[in-house]
Amino acid sequence: MSTSVAILGATGVYGRHLVPRLVARGHRVRALVRRPEAAAIAAACGAEVHAADVFDIASLRVGLEGCDVGINLATALPGPSGGTGDYALNDRVRREGTPIWIRACREAGVSRIVQQSIAMVNGGRGDAWTDEDTVFPPGGDSVAALAIAAAVAMEDTVRQSGLDWLILRGGLFYGPGTGFDDDWFARARAGKLRIPGDGDDYVSLAHIADMAEATAAALARWPSRRALIVADDHPPQWRELFTYVAAIAGGPTPQPGGRLGLPNFRVRNQRAREALSWSPSYPDHRAGLVR
């Protein structure tokens, strides 16, 4: 069934993969973006483009008017090589921007919302598999711990919104436009790729195309008021992942001792598979890291 869908943050990599998929499925898409001139993909696909900011309720309300579903993809994360993002601002987007977004949806009469979140909120310890019911140990002042706490607060806001919500917790994005695998390969070719810590930690990946497909499937199936993990089937340890990257790139075998930027998370995608009738096209990093 065709619906009118407003996407906040449509110029980000997630939005750039999602917009054409929704348009292809017959949805009427409205891209809510801070800089309309940067929304070339959305405009080329035939989506309406509206200027809006997550901290500006008036612009959000105007952009949401007449839509059936609101999808919040707003982030301010820096890329793997830095860039214009800022972790502290990203936490503020989640903690302070989400309540503004929710209020705008209510005032505009948008009753169904999809919220992007992160599967790290379900991280665990060691090699144990975790799922949507696993609670990441709270506390700490690392960038990752603060980001997870902000994501939990964001999800709480969504749950308490009174709207018909769906939360999609993505693994670590990779694939076209994300910059992560490009950075890994560049460092591997230069002999500068380092395995985080001792390499034993797991990382659950989500190819950006699979994340977009899962989101499109969610609009069709609509498993109301659920939080679902969207990730691949076979999370690798960092040692396995980076050794594979180096082998493809023709670089030296990476050594341990690199910066530990993410917590250990080895998450299951079973509930998303069942609720969305979805499965990843890239079930592991070998399928996704094709060069």
* Architecture per CATH nomenclature, i.e. the level-2 architecture: 3-Layer(aba) Sandwich
- Domain module count: 1
Taken from the alpha-carbon principal axes, the silhouette is globular
- Uncertain runs: none
Structural class: alpha/beta
- In total, the number of strands is 11
Q: Provide the spatial order of strands within the biggest beta sheet.
A: 3-2-1-4-5-6-10
CATH superfamily: NAD(P)-binding Rossmann-like Domain
Largest sheet: 7 strands, parallel
Question: How big a fraction of the residues is strand?
Answer: 15-25%
Output the number of helix runs: 10
Radius of gyration: 19 Å
Binned, the helix content reads 25-40%
CATH class: Alpha Beta
Per the CATH scheme, the topology name is Rossmann fold
Query: What is the arithmetic mean of pLDDT?
Result: 95
What distance lies between the first and last C-alpha atoms, to the nearest angstrom?
Answer: 37 Å
Topology as a string of helices (H) and strands (E): EHEHEHEHEHEEHEEHEHEHH
Can you tell me about this structure?
With 291 residues, the protein is an alpha/beta fold. The chain has one domain (4-174, 206-232, 268-280): NAD(P)-binding Rossmann-like Domain (Rossmann fold), CATH 3.40.50. The protein is built from ten helices and eleven strands. It has helices spanning 13-24, 40-45, 57-64, 87-108, 143-159, 180-189, 208-221, 238-249, 270-276, 285-288, and strands at residues 4-8, 28-33, 48-51, 69-72, 112-118, 164-170, 172-174, 194-196, 205-207, 226-230, 255-258. Helix 5 (143-159) links the parallel strand 5 and strand 6. Helix 6 crosses helix 8. It is globular, with a radius of gyration of 19 Å. The mean pLDDT is 95.
